[in-house]
Design a protein that fits this description.
alpha+beta; Jelly Rolls; Arc Repressor Mutant, subunit A; 4-stranded antiparallel β-sheet; 10 helices; 18% strand
């Protein structure tokens, strides 16, 4: 089982309700967002603090109350500035809004086909934030009838985007950069084989570049060298495993491509600032039920 995917293949919600919600706190396994891409749209809401987000190789810092819109196919990832950062992610298939909706289907298809390209930072418009907060509250609480409220919020969001012209028009879908696709191929290979022996030359070959140039280009896109990012990704996968399965630290290390447990612990501490044992303890503490009243 692949615990994280650069090209996300995890189910986003259900077949009839393809939308997923992630509330990211400092102890969350995916608090540091690995560089990835997917076929869905994504809305990120910075609840508190600051977040450094890289989109197709360009890094920007977003702050409290910022709302970021990420279109499908965009390579993205990032890290909180510090432990005060809290952020929400809503990942959804725009097709869910097109079902039996002839009045809006043309515009939604234009968004889907990239004829309408929505701006990245939406919260410059004051009407956006309250709608996104309501959307996140609905997905977080999942009260009876939340599906109606969720879809209503998305329709309202797109209505504001259109009314306030928070988009650019294009004559058709742009052809993705060949080099961007090379990086996507490398990330796909890492997500499928992170538990094995991955060498720099193998990644460079997949990208169609010589190793020296590949290292420079990969770092310009992700702000990490290929091997540094591979280890970072493996540690993120280990966090996911330790959070969701009853396995030992050694088993997590082996499952994530580390043959030496002591090296795994050292690498884990490098990226997370704590040991795997401390991470498990923090996870157990955060998951423990509160006192009964």
């Amino acid at each position: 089982m692949k615990y994280l995917d650069y090209k996300e293949r995890r189910d986003q919600g259900t077949f009839n309700f393809p939308i997923a919600f992630y509330h990211e706190l400092p102890h969350s396994p995916r608090y540091h967002m690995p560089y990835h891409w997917h076929y869905h749209l994504e809305i990120i809401h910075i609840v508190n603090g600051s977040f450094h987000l890289t989109l197709n190789g360009v890094t920007r810092t977003f702050r409290k109350n910022d709302v970021i819109f990420i279109t499908d196919g965009v390579l993205h990832g990032g890290s909180p500035e510090d432990q005060s950062c809290i952020y929400d992610c809503v990942v959804f298939d725009i097709g869910m809004l097109q079902k039996d909706n002839n009045a809006c289907s043309k515009t939604l298809k234009d968004i889907q086909n990239h004829n309408i390209v929505i701006h990245t930072l939406l919260s410059k418009e004051p009407l956006i934030l309250p709608v996104v907060e309501k959307l996140c509250d609905a997905l977080s609480g999942r009260d009876e009838g939340y599906e109606f409220l969720t879809q209503g919020c998305l329709y309202e969001l797109f209505s504001i985007i259109l009314k306030k012209h928070l988009y650019d028009e294009r004559s058709g879908k742009e052809i993705p950069s060949e080099r961007l696709n090379c990086i996507k191929n490398v990330l796909d290979h890492i997500s499928e084989n992170f538990d094995g022996n991955i060498k720099l030359n193998d990644l460079a070959r997949i990208a169609g570049m010589n190793p020296k140039y590949f290292c420079r280009y990969f770092k310009s896109m992700t702000e990490r060298t290929p091997i540094d990012y591979l280890n970072y990704y493996r540690v993120e996968c280990a966090c996911e495993m330790l959070s969701t399965r009853d396995i030992t630290i050694k088993e997590a290390a082996i499952s994530c491509g580390f043959n030496d447990e002591s090296y795994f612990i050292k690498t884990f501490h490098k990226y997370k600032g704590i040991t795997p044992k401390q991470f498990i303890k923090a996870e157990f503490t955060s998951a423990a039920p509160g006192p009964l009243h």
